[in-house]
Amino acid sequence: MLSLLLSLAACDVDVAVDATAQADESPDEFVARLNTELAELGRQNGAANWVRATYINHDTAILAAAAGERYSAWHSKSVAESLKFSDADMSADTARSIKQLKLGTSEPAPNDPAKRRELAAIMTDMSGMYGAGKYCPDDGRECMSLNELENVLAASRDYDAQLDAWQGWREVAKPLREKYARFVELSNEGANELGYGDLGQLWRDGYDMSPAEFEAETARLWQQVKPLYDALHCHVRAELAEEYGADKVPLDGPIPAHLLGNMWAQEWGEIYDLLEPYPGVGDLDVDSALIEQAYTPVRMVESAEQFYVSLGFEKLPATFWERSMFVKPADREVVCHASAWGLDGGDDLRIKMCIEPAYEDLRVIYHELGHNFYQRAYKDQPRLLQGGAHGGFHEAIGDTITLSMTPGYLAEVGLIESAETSEEAVINRQMQQALDKVAFLPFGKLIDEWRWDVFAGKTSPDNYNKAWWELRTRYQGIAPTSERGEDYFDPGAKYHVPGNTSYTRYFLARILQFQFQRSLCEAAGFNGPLHECSVFGSKEAGERLQAMLAAGASRPWQETLEKLTGTREMDATAIIDYFEPLMSWLEVQNEGRSCGW
Ligand code: X8Z
Ligand code: ZN
């Protein structure tokens, strides 16, 4: 559960559950009352969830499940009350608030106390089991955390060592299968009570268009970017076959899923060393600079904050520094997966992350602070309208800023020695970027496609893994090296599945961030190719961004997008323009190769 729910809907509390609906309330009064109740619910739920995520034990499970249960009770009751206004006259703002109320959960509970309790406990258990999960090999080696296993995939080029880490982490997900199946049953029942055919329809209803239109929209965007992905895949496969042999990486089939440097093969930047187009040209080694300059986690966060400040944003409050978790504690289990929190609909902003001195983590920090600056920018909206224009906007803000971490910017802040501008250096840099941004696209798309089918009953529990690997192969062109039957639950090895965070938001964000960047660069008066633009220090770009962020969820996203970019459509031409130099280069490399799988 990420920022939207935590800052908007995560709640709790008898205060609200006991508050009585007034028979003669007007729609405006009803919404005003909900906003007040939510403020208190959110405060208490934020505290319970924060302590759970930063201290996983028996007691915090009780606190977090109780908070989730009370929020669900409030949600069911409030949505039921809102029905009395179905035919009432009301302003567009009030109608929007009531719609946001209905959408204010990603796991609606049935309005039955026993089932509500059961669902809240399942949600708490699943994320706790994921967070505390460890791979304990049966050959006497010590147990390994996700971070440790990820480091093996990032650094090792030994085929079997990578396979062991990849398979090991998936042992952790096995016991989540049954809980997940029960969660699907219960929350589908809850979605039915809210008037949806299944939970996937509720998830797809948050985009100011019908769920069916939204599905078509994501398919359209995928078709726009697919040629870029296919070209990258073809080249990466050929290079991996050089490294590991064509017997291990067949040139006409999917790539083994454990060889891409990342636990989920979602971003491939860690294998840049195998792919650097022009070895040694241009200095892009931020990893080494962070270590050599002994960057601490706090200093890494400060450097990200500094970027936002350069755009004219106010510095983060003292409580951000006091209450955030930057480092993995030595003495307790936590959820290391990075997240940004807005706990009180105001200034209590925090991130929770297990930071290591690496470029990858620096980019994640910029991403997380994007959430926090967004949360602060919309804090004056009424509580129900605090949120992103849609989920993809929330995920895109910090990523947009990472697009400004150009070699020029990195040199300016001393993280590389100098920015080279030769054509070869540009291609190297584009490859580094594409392994992160382009490789992600099909992954970003398929996670919810799997869940939409699960929620709709098209994929039943006895087909969970089969459907998963069909999508992974069809979209990403990757495959496991051995049969992954239904005794496994491989989707559960990805945080957002047990954590129940919808994922299409990240797919949309990967496309939107280039659209945002194009507009911010225009505002900053930049005239060159998009990939060279950094808006670092541009107050004009900052103002445009701030205006978009301050609108929160108060208007349909199309309107908010139009204000920043002049168009009402999400559109992949910006990402395609950005990667034009690399795409031309890849086309030459791939000549004579047979691409596809
Ligand atoms: O989950 C995240 C962020 C927190 S919102 C760290 N991301 C996705 C992931 O890690 O799978 C950012 C990119 C995609
Ligand atoms: Zn995020």
Automatic annotation (TrEMBL):
Disulfide bonds join 136-143, 336-354, 521-533. Pfam families: Peptidase_M2. Chloride binds at residues 207, 505. Zn(2+) 2 binds at residues 367, 371, 395. GO terms for biological process: proteolysis. The active site is at residues 368, 496. InterPro entries: Peptidase_M2. Gene3D superfamilies: 1.10.1370.30. GO terms for molecular function: metallopeptidase activity; peptidyl-dipeptidase activity. It comes from the Bacteria. CDD domains: M2_ACE. Keywords: Disulfide bond, Glycoprotein, Metal-binding, Signal, Zinc. Zn(2+) 1 binds at residues 367, 371, 395. One of its GO terms (cellular component) is membrane. This is Peptidyl-dipeptidase. It comes from Woeseia oceani.
